[in-house]
TrEMBL record:
PROSITE patterns (UniProt xref): ABC_TRANSPORTER_2
Keyword ATP-binding: yes
Pfam families attached to this UniProt entry: ABC_tran
SMART domains: AAA
Domain of life: Bacteria
Record-annotated ABC transporter domain positions: 2-227
Protein name: ABC transporter
Organism field: Desulfuribacillus stibiiarsenatis
Amino acid sequence: MIEVVSIKKKFDSMEAVKDVSLHIDKGSIYGLLGSNGAGKTTLLKIIAGIYKQDSGEVLIGGEPIFENVEKKQRTIFLADLLYFFPNATIKQMADFYRSIYTSWNDERFQKLKEAFPIDLNKKIERMSKGMQRQVAFWLTLSAMPDVLILDEPLDGLDAVMRQKVKNLLVQDVAERGMTILISSHNLREVEDLCDHVGILHDGTLMIEKDLDDLKSDVHKVQLAFKNTPPPAFFEALDILYKEERGSVFLYIVRGKKDLLVSHIENYKPIIFDLLPLTLEEIFIYEMRDVGYAIENIIV
Ligand SMILES: Nc1ncnc2c1ncn2[C@@H]1O[C@H](COP(=O)(O)OP(=O)(O)OP(=O)(O)O)[C@@H](O)[C@H]1O
């Protein structure tokens, strides 16, 4: 659905995006993470067809997005800084969206009133930051885009509204195959939303993972043995991290769960627990493995 091939972008001599390639399937939710200044917004704007890359290609549904009116009518970029016309009400902004987005759906707009309980005739400028963000989602979801590109989308929303918006996004992905690219600093925030995650650092995509693979391939185990097992026990494990707490070992290991369990059970541990890992933990160990401390890369 979205094909990004060797994208480079400089601002004067500053290389904001350095040869980034990625692929996003239709109907998936891709989380782009990274620290301040990593190049996330620049890359999102290139993918949305707002900035032109210096080299490389961005294809949406097989066609270049830049200056492609038809594709842009089906692609919405929701920026971190929202923009509405001065003095406009929700109703007036909806009229504008209806005039430019061919897939605008009035029925959906009316239905979403239930999710966003705000007076249609209220001036958006006079609303709180969180309410303005709600309006942005209301309008965006009513325009029924095929591709939705979100830059720090949940900033300013309260916890209940965050969950509501996440549910609406997932619903559009599940029901009509919308594709979402979402940028955030916060791994925890996107953990339950994304099926793929990429980490951008200093203009380079450091690591890119399918979350189902990640979660099924990395495990935290807590172990204790009566007698320390022979070296063959440890050699057979792909250990990303280890810690000793008295006679209890804590290991983060990569590998298939069934094979791991049967290997460990062969050595008759007196304690053996398989513990869940958060996405943040997985990335900490994976990044360490490629020589980076994730604490320096995302917050
Ligand atoms: N219009 C611009 N002109 C000049 N430099 C820019 C411009 N936009 C971005 N940059 C530079 O490109 C680099 C990447 O910026 P970008 O906004 O893409 O990062 P980001 O990952 O979105 O950061 P943040 O998380 O802080 O929003 C930064 O060094 C920034 O100063």
